[in-house]
Amino acid sequence: MDTITAAAARRAALAAQGFAEPRPSGPVGRRHLGRLTERLRLLQLDSVNVAVRAHYMPVFSRLGGYPMALLDEAAWSHSARRPRLLVEYWAHEASLLPVQDWPLLQSGAKRKGWWRHYHELVDREPALVSDVLAAVKEVGPVGAGALEQLLGAGSGVPRPKGASWWSRSDVKRICEFLFGTGELTTGTRVNFQRLYDLPERVLPPEVLAAPPVESDEAARRLIGYAGAALGVATEAELRDYYRMGPETCRTAVSELVDAGELEPVEVRGWAKVGYRRPGARMPRKVAARALLCPFDPLIWERARTERLFDFRYRIEIYTPAEKREHGYYVFPFLLDDALVARVDLKTDRVANVLRVPGAFSEPGGEIPRVAAELAAELRLMADWLGLDDVRLGERGDLIAPLAKALAARPAS
User: Fold this and answer.
1) How far apart are CA 67 and CA 267, in angstroms?
2) SS3 at position 333
3) Cβ burial, residue 65 (10 Å; 0-12/13-18/19+)
4) For residue 279, what pLDDT is reported?
5) Taking the CB of residue 409, how many other CB atoms lie within 10 A of it?
6) CB neighbour list of residue 284: distance below 8 Å, 6 or more residues apart
7) Cα dihedral 293, 294, 296, 298 sign
8) Cα 387 to Cα 408: distance, rounded to the nearest angstrom
9) Residues 6+ positions from 214 with CB-CB distance below 8 Å
């Protein structure tokens, strides 16, 4: 078993996540997006829109400014000339993933998610399940609210017995159950509302025609993807990428090691064995600069983030304001191969500015350089979001040097 340093493991993780390559020098296009999603395999979705929705940000962090419509088109539209690249499913959490991975997620390799708690409702209301599927087939893509109205509007689909606010809520629950089992998926989104549709109207024909994948083969492929995306990772971290069951993951890891598709590695300072793909890139130096949203795959597993970067990170959305240490929606700032700052960000659409209520340096950082690089990245993010300027608040030791750096780099 090879032995590597923790710093080497960190750089391997950054390389695997796309941070060891320069951003495109010209316009970002569909080819760049396709390469990135094949690397990451997952873009997590989240409803928080304080700065920018979670699935857009990892693409910006790695590729720089790009048209959000590029990702929207790849995920939620399809044409013969520009076929759909991504589909929604519960993978890590609700995520966008390459369409070709759909059969792997439908194989039974992944453990059942929270929708399993709706089994009782589904068993109790089989007619309502049938009605939902029939209505989606007839009018989809369609939102749960519109389905509730349709099912109760005498449109040829009987209204559930004893219909009430709670029974309307049952429609949404059934939609989510069917989404979780793959009987429905997202046809498109409007103002981030999921509009349900049948997979056969969403997925490309070649994906639908693909033969079923046995669950053990799917588990090996998914863990292999996780290994490639993480660089060096423990078994628990490989498992977390797709939220797989412990026994399924352990078996897949063992089989991949036996097949020479994963190799164990001892990382100095790690209590558990790491695994990497043979030939995984292990750069001696990483020159990166990026703001990372809380749901970026580089940092979404908080214990791994702390071990890789000596950076304890918690999202404080649900913490009372007076008890927050760094802010409501805080982005770690990556510079080279270290997380050097924390930045509380908010997009103010009324004033058309990117607000920075707080900015905090990490111990040992070169404050002038951190402030200068952060100022440049904030300007880039504001331009990408179509905002006029960056406005600073008052919290944190980086505010004053950041103000100086921003003044030296005026808005374009």
Assistant:
1) 39
2) strand
3) middle
4) 93
5) 13
6) 11
7) positive
8) 19
9) 107
Q: Which long-range contacts (CB under 8 A, 24 or more apart) does 153-161 make?
A: 157/131, 158/127, 158/131, 160/125, 160/127, 160/128, 160/131
**Confidence at residue 185, expressed as pLDDT on a 0 to 100 scale:** 94
Amino acid of residue 237: E
Cα 374 from chain centre: 23
The CA distance from 120 to 162, in Å, is 18
Cis geometry, peptide bond prior to residue 141 (ω within 30 degrees of 0)? yes
CA distance 344 to 329: 6
Let me know: does 235 contact 275? Beta carbons within 8 Å. yes
Closest CA to 222 of 242, 201, 250: 242
Residue 404 CB partners (closer than 8 Å, separation 6+):
371
Q: Residue for token digits 């002038």?
A: 368
pLDDT at 148: 86
Token pair, residue 357, equals: 């209520």
Task: Work out the number of other CB atoms within 10 angstroms of the CB of residue 46.
Answer: 16
* CA distances for 359 relative to 50, 265, 299, 334, angstroms: 16, 37, 18, 13
Low-confidence ranges of the chain (pLDDT < 50): 153-160, 163-168
- Cβ contact 134:247 at 8 Å: no
- C-alpha angle 253/258/259, rounded to 5°? 95
Amino acid (1-letter code) at residue 200: E
- pTM for the whole thing? 0.93
CA dihedral 106, 95, 78, 82 (to 10 degrees): -110
2-4 vs 263-267, strand pairing mode: parallel
Task: Report the distance separating Cα 333 and Cα 237, nearest Å.
Answer: 22
For residues 135 and 157, is the Cβ–Cβ distance under 8 A?
Answer: yes
Whole-number Å distance between alpha carbons of 102 and 45:
17
**Alpha-carbon torsion 157, 160, 162, 165, what sign?**
negative
